[in-house]
Write a sequence for this structure.
């Protein structure tokens, strides 16, 4: 198995570790999305709650897509491309927007 | 503050970052990316904590519950914005061959989390119910 890996393999397994870090982060965002869904459906169904909950689920899907694209980029052979600022900013904006939806759910 | 605004502009203009200095060893960039992701997870955990305070402490008075939840959510927003800002600053420092930027944010976040935890302990022990 290990002999099948190409010559460019990094002994520190940096791309693999970075990939796993992205997976851990998607797991954290999944927990936040599940809590958002619970908050949206808690204590009776309201239009504002449903809209905010749906937004949180959409943001979760957007984050999954971003993470998936980065994981694919890290899985290729050779030296992986660096993370672009746009990619990082998009991931952060997903988290910020989730927090804004959460604030709306908490206050309403 | 002006430095922060300039950094925000750089988030959306990756070409400008590319032009500066020399490309560092890709392993350093990946390590920086993992640090960024660790901070992003911290931010997501704080946001999840905000949801959890609102959901799992229903007996608290409204003001306390909403105040604690909003404090955690605000900390999550700050933490995630700081994550991308610090990642950008580290990336630029590595490109220019400068020292990595120092930050007092971890200490501030630690103090804030400690204060919120103490407030939670007091609220739960004393039992100010709504």
């Amino acid at each position: 198995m290990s002999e099948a890996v190409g010559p460019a393999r990094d002994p520190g397994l940096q791309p693999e570790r970075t990939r796993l870090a992205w997976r851990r982060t998607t797991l954290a965002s999944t927990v936040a999305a599940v809590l958002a869904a619970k908050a949206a459906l808690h204590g009776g169904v309201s239009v504002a709650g449903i809209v905010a909950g749906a937004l949180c689920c959409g943001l979760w899907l957007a984050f999954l897509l971003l993470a998936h694209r980065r994981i694919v980029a890290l899985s290729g052979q050779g030296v992986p491309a660096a993370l672009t600022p746009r990619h990082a900013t998009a991931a952060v904006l997903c988290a910020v927007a989730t927090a804004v939806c959460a604030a709306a759910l908490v206050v309403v | 503050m002006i430095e922060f605004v300039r950094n925000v502009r750089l988030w959306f203009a990756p070409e400008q970052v590319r032009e500066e200095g020399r490309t560092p060893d890709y392993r350093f960039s990946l390590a920086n990316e993992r640090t960024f992701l660790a901070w992003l997870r911290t931010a997501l955990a704080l946001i999840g904590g905000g949801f959890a305070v609102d959901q799992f402490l229903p007996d608290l008075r409204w003001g306390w519950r909403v105040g604690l939840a909003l404090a955690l959510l605000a900390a999550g927003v700050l933490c995630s914005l700081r994550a991308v800002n610090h990642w950008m600053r580290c990336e630029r420092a590595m490109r220019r061959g400068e020292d990595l930027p120092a930050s007092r944010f971890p200490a501030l976040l630690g103090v804030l989390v400690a204060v919120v935890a103490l407030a939670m302990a007091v609220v739960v022990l004393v039992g100010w119910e709504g």
Q: What stands out?
A: The helical segments of chain B are 2-11, 14-19, 26-56, 62-96, 105-126.
